[in-house]
Specification:
Chain lengths: 242, 160
Amino acid sequence: MQNFKMVLIFLFGISIGALIWGVSMFFLQKTPVVFIKTPKNYSFYPINLTHLFFNKYQTKTLMPIATLKDIKLKGVYYDGQKGFVIIEDKNKTYFIDLNKKYKGYKLIKIALNYAIFEKNQKEYKIVMKKEKIHSNYKIINEPVKYVKKKVFLEYKNNLSKIWKNIGIIKTDKGYKITYINKNSIFYKLGLRRRDILLEVNGRKLKNDADAWDLYNNADKFNQFEIKILRDNQIKVLNYEMD
Amino acid sequence: MKRIIIFVFGLFIGVIIFMPKDNLYFTLQKYLAKEKIYINSKIKSNLKLTLYNGTIYQNDIDFAYFKKIDIMPFLLYNNIKVKNLKINFQNYKIKTLNITYSILNPVKIYISGKSSFGIISGEINLLKRFIRIYILNLSDVNLKTFLRKDNKGYFYYAKF
């Protein structure tokens, strides 16, 4: 009789265990999460759409221009069609491309020393302080250099060859070059030690996943625009595949 | 007292047997998906959960492939065994990887394994919140950039 009671207590314990999980089932996911990979196609077509924007701004009635006090303009780049600005917000630096939004403010215009953002039909102007125009990031757009696709693929398919010639570490701003072989293709293409890689083809290198994705898809690009930070200057290195 | 011990023992057995391992795994997948990490694999569960022929994606990139992962959640002793993990980066391969958490040392998770770049041995300290994984007999010089070195050899260190 005593043993039977013990068995019953044991079975009761088991059934309580089952009950706990039974209740918890209401809060658990019932179906698997499956990731479906969609192939990415990178294509660039030089289409001039400035006339569309021109007409748009002609007919638009905007409210008076206000200022954004908390955001500082640190640098600008604009080549007539595309551009970006560098802003500082709460001691952090951000790169904003033309027609992209930052905290709901859309960058609509870039001038030599100011940028105009738009939010809720209202324009906001950020002016670069005079003393900062030359002291902070100055943007230099380098002429296009041509790279043999064969040489590029040789490096792309042999990662150890890359690491033998260049060393990079992740920093807060981007990926810093710690070592570069002077006889390597990287040096010939204009990269130098202590350069910080900020963006490649408009994509910010914020983490290893970004860098990795770029590496995996690098052979799909026919041109590269590499934005680097060197001696407090932003340089845009342009390459095209031969 | 004897009755309480038998009840707790029964409860423990019940919790392990009836643990909905599939659903717990799906819930884990759901949280990982928020971090843009996905695991696509076939699964099989009995007392342990087994994932077969899987791919791990991070930010839309197929980060790693594995042949088999055994997850044994026995509460007092938990173990994850990974077999043939191939990282999509310089063809790094991890032949075996054991991650063990035991109630005997509740502040540490032990990691050990064999890989194409060396022997893996390390720990995750939950109390001091750091990860230290030694790569003994390191065969790949490229990895040195990401590792630190002490008397024992090269190791990966991170705080969390």
